[in-house]
Amino acid sequence: MNRFQTAAAPPTVAMPKPKPAVAQTPATEKEHERILASYGGTYDDPRLESLVSKTVDRLVAASDRPDQGYRVTILNSGAVNAFALPNGQLYVTRGLLALASDTSELSSVLSHEMAHVLSKHAAMREDQARQAAIVTRVVTDMSNDPDLTALALAKTKLTMASFSRNQEFEADGIGVGISAKAHFDPYGAARFLSAMERNAELKAGKTSLDPRAQDFTSSHPATPERVQNAQTIARQYAAPEGAERDRETYLAAIDNLVYGEDPSEGFVRGRRFLHPKLGFTFQAPDNFTLDNTAQAVIGVRDGGSQAMRFDVVRVPAEQSLGDYLNSGWMEGVDKTSTEDITINGFPAASATAKGDQWQFKVYALRFGSDVYRFIFAARQKSTESERNARETVNSFRRLTLEEIQAARPLRIKVITVQPGDTVESLSHRMAGVDHPAERFRVLNGLDRNAQVKVRDRVKVVAD
Protein backbone atom coordinates (compact mmCIF):
# COMPACT_ATOMS: atom_id res chain seq x y z
CA MET A 1 0.00 0.00 0.00
CA ASN A 2 1.16 3.52 -0.68
CA ARG A 3 2.46 4.85 2.62
CA PHE A 4 1.09 8.32 1.81
CA GLN A 5 -2.56 7.15 1.70
CA THR A 6 -4.30 8.65 4.70
CA ALA A 7 -7.81 7.24 4.22
CA ALA A 8 -7.09 4.08 6.21
CA ALA A 9 -5.68 5.97 9.20
CA PRO A 10 -7.99 6.23 12.25
CA PRO A 11 -9.07 9.85 12.79
CA THR A 12 -7.14 10.21 16.06
CA VAL A 13 -3.72 9.46 14.50
CA ALA A 14 -1.72 12.64 13.74
CA MET A 15 0.17 12.19 10.48
CA PRO A 16 3.84 13.20 10.63
CA LYS A 17 4.49 16.39 8.72
CA PRO A 18 6.15 15.68 5.39
CA LYS A 19 9.72 16.99 5.20
CA PRO A 20 10.14 20.10 3.05
CA ALA A 21 11.34 19.06 -0.40
CA VAL A 22 14.57 20.20 -2.04
CA ALA A 23 13.85 22.03 -5.30
CA GLN A 24 15.65 20.27 -8.17
CA THR A 25 16.46 22.06 -11.42
CA PRO A 26 18.43 20.73 -14.41
CA ALA A 27 21.32 22.97 -13.24
CA THR A 28 21.40 21.54 -9.70
CA GLU A 29 21.06 17.99 -11.05
CA LYS A 30 24.04 18.62 -13.32
CA GLU A 31 26.05 20.10 -10.48
CA HIS A 32 25.14 17.11 -8.27
CA GLU A 33 26.41 14.68 -10.94
CA ARG A 34 29.60 16.72 -11.32
CA ILE A 35 30.25 16.67 -7.57
CA LEU A 36 29.65 12.89 -7.40
CA ALA A 37 32.04 12.32 -10.33
CA SER A 38 34.74 14.44 -8.72
CA TYR A 39 34.39 13.05 -5.19
CA GLY A 40 34.30 9.29 -5.79
CA GLY A 41 30.48 8.93 -5.82
CA THR A 42 28.33 8.33 -2.76
CA TYR A 43 29.44 6.42 0.33
CA ASP A 44 26.63 4.04 1.25
CA ASP A 45 26.32 3.29 4.94
CA PRO A 46 22.75 3.17 6.32
CA ARG A 47 23.87 3.67 9.95
CA LEU A 48 25.83 6.81 9.10
CA GLU A 49 23.12 8.15 6.78
CA SER A 50 20.56 7.75 9.56
CA LEU A 51 22.78 9.64 12.05
CA VAL A 52 23.40 12.49 9.59
CA SER A 53 19.76 12.85 8.54
CA LYS A 54 18.52 12.78 12.18
CA THR A 55 21.04 15.51 13.00
CA VAL A 56 19.85 17.61 10.03
CA ASP A 57 16.17 17.17 11.05
CA ARG A 58 16.98 18.40 14.55
CA LEU A 59 18.83 21.43 13.17
CA VAL A 60 16.08 22.29 10.67
CA ALA A 61 13.46 22.22 13.42
CA ALA A 62 15.59 24.64 15.50
CA SER A 63 16.38 27.03 12.63
CA ASP A 64 14.48 30.17 11.66
CA ARG A 65 13.47 28.52 8.38
CA PRO A 66 11.98 25.08 9.16
CA ASP A 67 10.36 25.24 5.70
CA GLN A 68 13.74 25.02 3.90
CA GLY A 69 14.39 21.46 2.72
CA TYR A 70 17.82 19.79 2.77
CA ARG A 71 19.18 16.63 1.23
CA VAL A 72 22.51 15.29 2.50
CA THR A 73 24.88 13.18 0.44
CA ILE A 74 27.89 11.44 2.03
CA LEU A 75 30.73 11.45 -0.50
CA ASN A 76 33.20 8.57 -0.84
CA SER A 77 36.27 10.76 -0.43
CA GLY A 78 39.00 10.84 2.20
CA ALA A 79 39.31 14.64 1.84
CA VAL A 80 37.90 16.68 4.74
CA ASN A 81 35.16 18.70 3.08
CA ALA A 82 31.55 19.83 3.23
CA PHE A 83 29.63 22.24 1.01
CA ALA A 84 26.11 23.22 0.00
CA LEU A 85 24.26 24.09 -3.19
CA PRO A 86 21.85 27.05 -3.03
CA ASN A 87 18.80 24.71 -3.16
CA GLY A 88 19.73 22.98 0.11
CA GLN A 89 21.73 20.00 -1.18
CA LEU A 90 24.41 19.42 1.44
CA TYR A 91 27.53 17.33 0.90
CA VAL A 92 29.85 15.91 3.52
CA THR A 93 32.81 13.61 2.85
CA ARG A 94 33.58 10.45 4.84
CA GLY A 95 36.98 12.10 5.51
CA LEU A 96 35.20 14.83 7.45
CA LEU A 97 33.07 12.28 9.34
CA ALA A 98 36.28 10.41 10.32
CA LEU A 99 37.81 13.61 11.73
CA ALA A 100 34.78 14.70 13.81
CA SER A 101 34.67 13.25 17.33
CA ASP A 102 31.00 13.62 18.31
CA THR A 103 27.57 14.56 16.98
CA SER A 104 27.87 18.18 18.17
CA GLU A 105 30.96 18.61 15.95
CA LEU A 106 29.06 17.12 13.00
CA SER A 107 26.09 19.39 13.79
CA SER A 108 28.43 22.43 13.70
CA VAL A 109 29.49 21.59 10.14
CA LEU A 110 25.95 20.86 8.93
CA SER A 111 24.50 24.00 10.57
CA HIS A 112 27.36 26.08 9.10
CA GLU A 113 26.49 24.82 5.60
CA MET A 114 22.77 25.41 6.26
CA ALA A 115 23.68 28.98 7.27
CA HIS A 116 25.38 29.51 3.87
CA VAL A 117 22.13 28.40 2.20
CA LEU A 118 19.90 30.52 4.48
CA SER A 119 22.10 33.62 4.00
CA LYS A 120 22.13 33.10 0.22
CA HIS A 121 25.96 32.84 0.32
CA ALA A 122 25.82 29.60 -1.66
CA ALA A 123 23.88 31.38 -4.44
CA MET A 124 26.36 34.29 -4.48
CA ARG A 125 29.26 31.87 -4.64
CA GLU A 126 27.65 30.03 -7.54
CA ASP A 127 27.37 33.27 -9.55
CA GLN A 128 30.99 34.04 -8.76
CA ALA A 129 32.09 30.59 -9.88
CA ARG A 130 30.09 30.95 -13.06
CA GLN A 131 31.75 34.26 -13.92
CA ALA A 132 35.21 32.92 -13.20
CA ALA A 133 34.39 29.53 -14.71
CA ILE A 134 37.57 27.67 -15.53
CA VAL A 135 37.06 26.00 -18.84
CA THR A 136 38.42 22.51 -18.56
CA ARG A 137 41.01 21.86 -21.21
CA VAL A 138 40.72 18.28 -22.30
CA VAL A 139 43.67 16.51 -23.80
CA THR A 140 42.15 17.03 -27.27
CA ASP A 141 43.10 20.70 -27.44
CA MET A 142 46.42 20.35 -25.70
CA SER A 143 48.50 20.51 -28.82
CA ASN A 144 47.34 23.95 -29.93
CA ASP A 145 47.19 25.65 -26.56
CA PRO A 146 50.10 28.10 -26.23
CA ASP A 147 49.56 28.64 -22.48
CA LEU A 148 49.71 24.97 -21.65
CA THR A 149 51.68 23.98 -18.60
CA ALA A 150 52.03 20.44 -17.34
CA LEU A 151 49.41 21.23 -14.71
CA ALA A 152 46.77 21.92 -17.35
CA LEU A 153 46.84 18.16 -17.83
CA ALA A 154 45.56 17.88 -14.30
CA LYS A 155 42.72 20.41 -14.40
CA THR A 156 39.49 18.63 -13.70
CA LYS A 157 36.01 19.97 -13.50
CA LEU A 158 35.51 20.90 -9.88
CA THR A 159 36.34 24.49 -8.97
CA MET A 160 34.69 25.75 -5.81
CA ALA A 161 34.94 29.50 -5.31
CA SER A 162 35.88 30.43 -1.74
CA PHE A 163 33.60 32.22 0.66
CA SER A 164 34.66 35.67 1.89
CA ARG A 165 35.93 36.09 5.43
CA ASN A 166 32.76 37.93 6.43
CA GLN A 167 30.54 35.20 4.96
CA GLU A 168 32.44 32.60 6.98
CA PHE A 169 32.10 34.54 10.22
CA GLU A 170 28.39 35.11 9.52
CA ALA A 171 27.80 31.41 8.80
CA ASP A 172 29.73 30.44 11.97
CA GLY A 173 27.50 32.77 14.01
CA ILE A 174 24.23 31.48 12.55
CA GLY A 175 25.46 27.86 12.64
CA VAL A 176 26.49 27.92 16.32
CA GLY A 177 23.09 29.49 17.13
CA ILE A 178 21.16 26.75 15.28
CA SER A 179 23.25 24.00 16.96
CA ALA A 180 22.71 25.50 20.42
CA LYS A 181 18.94 25.85 19.86
CA ALA A 182 18.87 22.19 18.79
CA HIS A 183 20.49 21.39 22.21
CA PHE A 184 23.88 20.40 20.78
CA ASP A 185 27.02 21.56 22.58
CA PRO A 186 27.66 25.02 21.04
CA TYR A 187 31.43 24.55 21.52
CA GLY A 188 31.41 21.77 18.86
CA ALA A 189 32.25 24.33 16.15
CA ALA A 190 35.36 25.63 17.94
CA ARG A 191 36.56 22.07 18.59
CA PHE A 192 36.02 20.98 15.00
CA LEU A 193 37.64 24.11 13.51
CA SER A 194 40.72 23.36 15.68
CA ALA A 195 40.75 19.74 14.49
CA MET A 196 40.58 20.91 10.86
CA GLU A 197 43.41 23.36 11.39
CA ARG A 198 45.62 20.66 12.93
CA ASN A 199 44.65 18.21 10.17
CA ALA A 200 45.60 20.81 7.53
CA GLU A 201 49.00 21.29 9.22
CA LEU A 202 49.64 17.53 9.02
CA LYS A 203 48.85 17.66 5.31
CA ALA A 204 50.80 20.84 4.63
CA GLY A 205 53.85 19.00 3.34
CA LYS A 206 51.81 17.31 0.60
CA THR A 207 50.68 19.18 -2.47
CA SER A 208 47.93 17.56 -4.46
CA LEU A 209 46.66 18.24 -7.96
CA ASP A 210 43.41 16.48 -7.27
CA PRO A 211 40.50 18.81 -6.52
CA ARG A 212 39.03 16.03 -4.36
CA ALA A 213 41.96 16.50 -2.02
CA GLN A 214 41.22 20.22 -1.70
CA ASP A 215 39.76 20.20 1.74
CA PHE A 216 37.35 22.34 3.73
CA THR A 217 40.12 24.78 4.60
CA SER A 218 40.62 25.82 0.97
CA SER A 219 36.97 26.72 0.39
CA HIS A 220 36.33 27.73 4.05
CA PRO A 221 39.57 29.25 5.44
CA ALA A 222 40.03 27.83 8.97
CA THR A 223 42.02 30.31 11.01
CA PRO A 224 42.75 30.85 14.70
CA GLU A 225 40.41 33.87 14.41
CA ARG A 226 37.53 31.62 13.41
CA VAL A 227 38.19 29.28 16.33
CA GLN A 228 38.21 32.24 18.72
CA ASN A 229 35.11 33.76 17.12
CA ALA A 230 33.24 30.41 17.40
CA GLN A 231 34.19 30.20 21.09
CA THR A 232 32.97 33.73 21.76
CA ILE A 233 29.63 33.00 20.08
CA ALA A 234 29.25 29.69 21.98
CA ARG A 235 29.64 31.55 25.31
CA GLN A 236 26.44 33.50 24.56
CA TYR A 237 24.46 30.26 24.77
CA ALA A 238 23.61 28.00 27.68
CA ALA A 239 26.47 26.42 29.61
CA PRO A 240 27.65 23.28 27.77
CA GLU A 241 26.65 20.97 30.67
CA GLY A 242 23.05 20.74 29.45
CA ALA A 243 24.07 20.43 25.81
CA GLU A 244 24.68 17.16 24.06
CA ARG A 245 27.92 15.99 22.52
CA ASP A 246 26.41 12.59 21.86
CA ARG A 247 29.86 11.04 21.51
CA GLU A 248 28.93 7.39 22.07
CA THR A 249 26.25 7.36 19.35
CA TYR A 250 28.61 9.15 16.97
CA LEU A 251 31.55 6.78 17.51
CA ALA A 252 29.27 3.75 17.08
CA ALA A 253 28.11 5.16 13.72
CA ILE A 254 31.64 5.76 12.34
CA ASP A 255 33.15 2.48 13.60
CA ASN A 256 34.52 0.64 10.51
CA LEU A 257 34.29 3.74 8.27
CA VAL A 258 36.68 3.59 5.28
CA TYR A 259 39.61 5.96 5.95
CA GLY A 260 41.77 7.67 3.30
CA GLU A 261 41.77 6.41 -0.28
CA ASP A 262 39.32 3.69 -1.29
CA PRO A 263 41.48 1.07 -3.03
CA SER A 264 38.54 -0.36 -4.99
CA GLU A 265 38.71 2.78 -7.15
CA GLY A 266 42.45 2.46 -7.70
CA PHE A 267 45.07 4.06 -5.48
CA VAL A 268 48.57 5.49 -5.45
CA ARG A 269 51.36 4.06 -3.27
CA GLY A 270 54.49 6.14 -3.83
CA ARG A 271 55.15 6.02 -7.60
CA ARG A 272 52.97 2.96 -8.16
CA PHE A 273 49.31 2.99 -9.21
CA LEU A 274 47.25 -0.13 -8.41
CA HIS A 275 43.68 -0.91 -9.39
CA PRO A 276 42.62 -4.12 -7.59
CA LYS A 277 39.09 -4.09 -9.04
CA LEU A 278 40.34 -3.90 -12.63
CA GLY A 279 43.40 -6.01 -11.82
CA PHE A 280 46.41 -4.01 -13.09
CA THR A 281 49.30 -1.84 -11.89
CA PHE A 282 52.02 0.39 -13.35
CA GLN A 283 54.85 2.52 -11.97
CA ALA A 284 55.71 6.14 -12.77
CA PRO A 285 59.32 7.26 -13.37
CA ASP A 286 61.66 8.62 -10.67
CA ASN A 287 60.90 12.19 -9.56
CA PHE A 288 57.26 11.95 -10.67
CA THR A 289 54.37 12.63 -8.29
CA LEU A 290 51.23 10.61 -9.06
CA ASP A 291 47.70 11.74 -8.33
CA ASN A 292 44.57 9.65 -8.80
CA THR A 293 41.90 12.15 -9.90
CA ALA A 294 38.31 11.33 -10.83
CA GLN A 295 39.02 11.55 -14.57
CA ALA A 296 42.56 10.19 -14.89
CA VAL A 297 45.79 9.33 -13.11
CA ILE A 298 48.05 12.35 -13.49
CA GLY A 299 51.82 12.36 -13.02
CA VAL A 300 54.01 15.46 -12.97
CA ARG A 301 57.79 15.52 -12.83
CA ASP A 302 59.43 17.73 -10.20
CA GLY A 303 59.82 21.14 -11.83
CA GLY A 304 56.94 20.51 -14.25
CA SER A 305 59.00 19.88 -17.41
CA GLN A 306 57.33 16.51 -18.01
CA ALA A 307 53.86 15.17 -17.27
CA MET A 308 51.79 12.09 -17.93
CA ARG A 309 48.12 11.18 -18.04
CA PHE A 310 46.67 7.67 -17.81
CA ASP A 311 43.00 7.03 -18.58
CA VAL A 312 40.56 4.58 -20.13
CA VAL A 313 38.85 5.07 -23.50
CA ARG A 314 36.17 3.32 -25.54
CA VAL A 315 37.63 1.74 -28.67
CA PRO A 316 35.49 -0.67 -30.74
CA ALA A 317 36.92 -4.21 -30.68
CA GLU A 318 37.22 -4.22 -34.48
CA GLN A 319 39.26 -0.98 -34.64
CA SER A 320 43.03 -1.46 -34.52
CA LEU A 321 44.87 0.55 -31.87
CA GLY A 322 47.06 2.16 -34.54
CA ASP A 323 43.91 3.35 -36.35
CA TYR A 324 42.58 4.69 -33.06
CA LEU A 325 45.74 6.75 -32.44
CA ASN A 326 45.41 8.22 -35.95
CA SER A 327 41.66 8.82 -35.72
CA GLY A 328 41.90 12.53 -34.88
CA TRP A 329 41.09 12.51 -31.15
CA MET A 330 44.37 14.36 -30.66
CA GLU A 331 45.81 16.97 -32.98
CA GLY A 332 49.37 16.94 -34.22
CA VAL A 333 49.79 13.13 -34.32
CA ASP A 334 52.54 12.14 -36.75
CA LYS A 335 50.84 9.27 -38.58
CA THR A 336 54.15 7.97 -39.93
CA SER A 337 55.32 7.41 -36.33
CA THR A 338 52.45 5.05 -35.46
CA GLU A 339 53.43 1.46 -34.81
CA ASP A 340 51.69 -1.64 -33.47
CA ILE A 341 53.59 -3.19 -30.58
CA THR A 342 53.10 -5.68 -27.74
CA ILE A 343 53.60 -4.70 -24.10
CA ASN A 344 53.92 -7.57 -21.61
CA GLY A 345 51.74 -9.71 -23.85
CA PHE A 346 49.05 -7.03 -24.35
CA PRO A 347 48.32 -5.63 -27.84
CA ALA A 348 49.32 -1.94 -28.00
CA ALA A 349 50.24 0.88 -30.36
CA SER A 350 52.36 4.00 -29.98
CA ALA A 351 52.71 7.33 -31.81
CA THR A 352 54.31 10.73 -31.34
CA ALA A 353 52.55 14.10 -31.54
CA LYS A 354 53.74 17.69 -31.57
CA GLY A 355 52.26 20.85 -30.10
CA ASP A 356 53.64 24.40 -29.96
CA GLN A 357 55.06 23.98 -26.47
CA TRP A 358 55.05 20.24 -25.90
CA GLN A 359 56.18 16.99 -27.45
CA PHE A 360 53.91 14.00 -26.86
CA LYS A 361 54.43 10.26 -26.81
CA VAL A 362 51.14 8.38 -26.79
CA TYR A 363 50.38 4.70 -26.15
CA ALA A 364 47.11 2.78 -26.36
CA LEU A 365 47.01 -0.67 -24.75
CA ARG A 366 44.23 -3.26 -24.81
CA PHE A 367 43.63 -5.02 -21.48
CA GLY A 368 40.57 -7.28 -21.49
CA SER A 369 37.73 -5.35 -23.10
CA ASP A 370 39.20 -1.96 -22.09
CA VAL A 371 41.72 0.24 -23.84
CA TYR A 372 44.05 2.34 -21.68
CA ARG A 373 45.87 5.44 -22.85
CA PHE A 374 49.22 6.72 -21.63
CA ILE A 375 49.95 10.29 -22.77
CA PHE A 376 53.42 11.61 -21.97
CA ALA A 377 54.18 15.30 -22.44
CA ALA A 378 57.65 16.84 -22.37
CA ARG A 379 58.79 20.41 -22.97
CA GLN A 380 61.75 19.05 -24.91
CA LYS A 381 62.07 15.59 -26.29
CA SER A 382 65.13 14.00 -24.70
CA THR A 383 66.52 10.53 -24.15
CA GLU A 384 65.32 10.86 -20.54
CA SER A 385 61.71 11.73 -21.50
CA GLU A 386 61.69 8.90 -24.06
CA ARG A 387 63.04 6.43 -21.51
CA ASN A 388 60.53 7.60 -18.85
CA ALA A 389 57.63 6.97 -21.23
CA ARG A 390 58.92 3.56 -22.30
CA GLU A 391 59.70 2.33 -18.78
CA THR A 392 56.32 3.43 -17.42
CA VAL A 393 54.40 1.66 -20.17
CA ASN A 394 56.56 -1.47 -19.82
CA SER A 395 55.75 -1.58 -16.10
CA PHE A 396 52.01 -2.08 -16.86
CA ARG A 397 51.08 -5.62 -15.76
CA ARG A 398 48.35 -7.78 -14.28
CA LEU A 399 48.12 -7.81 -10.47
CA THR A 400 48.63 -11.16 -8.73
CA LEU A 401 45.85 -12.61 -6.61
CA GLU A 402 47.94 -11.92 -3.46
CA GLU A 403 48.33 -8.25 -4.45
CA ILE A 404 44.59 -7.90 -5.04
CA GLN A 405 43.76 -9.48 -1.68
CA ALA A 406 46.32 -7.31 0.13
CA ALA A 407 44.78 -4.09 -1.23
CA ARG A 408 42.24 -3.60 1.52
CA PRO A 409 41.06 -0.14 2.59
CA LEU A 410 42.13 1.36 5.89
CA ARG A 411 39.25 1.80 8.33
CA ILE A 412 38.42 3.72 11.49
CA LYS A 413 38.12 1.30 14.41
CA VAL A 414 36.69 2.47 17.74
CA ILE A 415 38.36 0.78 20.73
CA THR A 416 38.25 1.10 24.53
CA VAL A 417 41.37 2.35 26.33
CA GLN A 418 42.75 -0.40 28.63
CA PRO A 419 44.93 0.04 31.72
CA GLY A 420 48.50 0.75 30.60
CA ASP A 421 47.50 2.17 27.18
CA THR A 422 49.07 5.51 26.23
CA VAL A 423 48.82 7.81 23.21
CA GLU A 424 52.17 6.35 22.07
CA SER A 425 51.22 2.68 22.48
CA LEU A 426 47.82 3.19 20.81
CA SER A 427 49.31 5.15 17.91
CA HIS A 428 51.71 2.22 17.27
CA ARG A 429 48.61 0.20 16.38
CA MET A 430 47.74 2.64 13.58
CA ALA A 431 48.27 1.17 10.10
CA GLY A 432 49.22 2.94 6.89
CA VAL A 433 49.30 6.54 8.18
CA ASP A 434 52.12 9.08 8.48
CA HIS A 435 52.89 10.82 11.84
CA PRO A 436 50.83 8.19 13.74
CA ALA A 437 51.03 9.81 17.21
CA GLU A 438 50.03 13.27 15.95
CA ARG A 439 47.37 11.76 13.67
CA PHE A 440 45.94 9.81 16.66
CA ARG A 441 45.75 13.04 18.69
CA VAL A 442 44.04 14.96 15.87
CA LEU A 443 41.55 12.15 15.18
CA ASN A 444 40.61 12.02 18.85
CA GLY A 445 40.58 15.75 19.57
CA LEU A 446 43.47 15.45 22.04
CA ASP A 447 45.73 18.44 22.69
CA ARG A 448 49.50 18.19 22.36
CA ASN A 449 49.99 17.05 25.98
CA ALA A 450 46.67 15.36 26.75
CA GLN A 451 46.72 11.68 27.70
CA VAL A 452 44.07 8.98 27.23
CA LYS A 453 42.02 7.76 30.19
CA VAL A 454 41.09 4.14 30.93
CA ARG A 455 37.65 3.20 29.52
CA ASP A 456 37.72 6.14 27.06
CA ARG A 457 36.51 5.21 23.57
CA VAL A 458 39.06 6.25 20.94
CA LYS A 459 39.54 6.02 17.18
CA VAL A 460 42.48 4.23 15.59
CA VAL A 461 43.20 3.56 11.90
CA ALA A 462 43.53 -0.14 11.09
CA ASP A 463 43.54 -2.31 7.97
UniProtKB/TrEMBL annotation:
Residues 215-226 have a biased composition (Polar residues). It holds the Pfam family Peptidase_M48. Residues 1-29, 204-226 are annotated as: Disordered. Keywords: Hydrolase, Metal-binding, Metalloprotease, Protease, Zinc. Its EC number is 3.4.24.-. Residues 52-232 form the Peptidase M48 domain. Its cofactor is Zn(2+). GO terms for molecular function: metallopeptidase activity. The keyword Protease applies. PANTHER family: METALLOENDOPEPTIDASE OMA1, METALLOENDOPEPTIDASE OMA1, MITOCHONDRIAL. This is M48 family metalloprotease.
